[in-house]
């Protein structure tokens, strides 16, 4: 499923994430990056970047996202990488492999459009992204406590990262409760999945990231049925799983 419906996910993304977002005295421009494969190549359009067709350019831009992630959570990943990835490699290597998972779609916003890729790469600091999301259409169980074995289709939000200058202005709420939610609804319609097949959105959040957890709960998200939980001996899990039923959201 991750790549079977990839073109439909990209179409929904292009429809519901705005090309430009006004922010204070500047305009944040959108860039979509798609991790496609030889088996499921994407016919790119509207400036969407295909990893299969242009791996060099795409990976340069993805490295900018690693830098953004490092700024926000690098110290956390450094501390937990062995437990999270079950190996002793640096977290950036593990995260890089994860970021190249076929089926992932990235939506990146920065102060300059990525249309002239060569020019942008000459001015990477000035054009560095200020925020990004990554997600894919997939199937998961353990979503609802009433039927934890049931398998649902959903959009799994791998990352939502905003640098400090663009936080606290309502952008995060818009990205999830408006743009991503509308994208999820469009994916459900385009793939012809019913309400009984498509759940909505799921994500992972570090248990120590209390601010993010409060944010997700304010959006109406709740812990998934199979989310790790704190134990009676006050042992806190590494992360929680949160889900949002898109029919419960008003956009």
TrEMBL record:
Keywords: Acyltransferase, Cytoplasm, Nucleus, Transferase. It is found in: Cytoplasm; Nucleus. Its main location: cytoplasm. GO terms for cellular component: cytoplasm; nucleus. It is an enzyme of class 2 (transferase). Belongs to the acetyltransferase family. NAA40 subfamily. This is N-alpha-acetyltransferase 40. It comes from Torulaspora globosa.
């Amino acid at each position: 499923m991750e790549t079977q419906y990839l073109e439909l996910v990209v179409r929904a993304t292009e429809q519901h994430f705005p090309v430009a977002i006004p922010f204070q005295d500047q305009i944040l421009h959108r860039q979509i990056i798609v991790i496609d494969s030889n088996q499921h190549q994407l016919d790119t359009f509207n400036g969407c970047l295909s990893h299969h067709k242009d791996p060099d350019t795409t990976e340069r831009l993805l490295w900018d996202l690693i830098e953004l992630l490092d700024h926000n959570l690098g110290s956390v990943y450094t501390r937990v990488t062995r437990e999270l990835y079950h190996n002793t490699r640096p977290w950036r290597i593990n995260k890089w492999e994860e970021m190249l998972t076929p089926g992932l779609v990235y939506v990146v916003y920065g102060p300059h459009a990525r249309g002239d890729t060569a020019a942008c790469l000459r001015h990477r600091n000035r054009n560095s992204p200020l925020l990004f999301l990554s997600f894919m259409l997939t199937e998961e169980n353990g979503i609802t406590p009433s039927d934890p074995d049931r398998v649902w289709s959903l959009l799994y939000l791998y990352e939502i990262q905003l640098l400090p200058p663009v936080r606290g202005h309502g952008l995060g709420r818009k990205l999830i409760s408006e743009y991503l939610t509308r994208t999820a609804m469009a994916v459900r319609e385009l793939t012809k999945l019913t309400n009984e097949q498509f759940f909505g959105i799921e994500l992972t959040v570090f248990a120590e990231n209390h601010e993010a957890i409060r944010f997700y709960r304010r959006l109406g998200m709740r812990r998934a049925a199979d989310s790790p939980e704190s134990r009676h001996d006050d042992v806190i899990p590494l992360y929680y799983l949160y889900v949002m039923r898109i029919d419960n959201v008003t956009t």
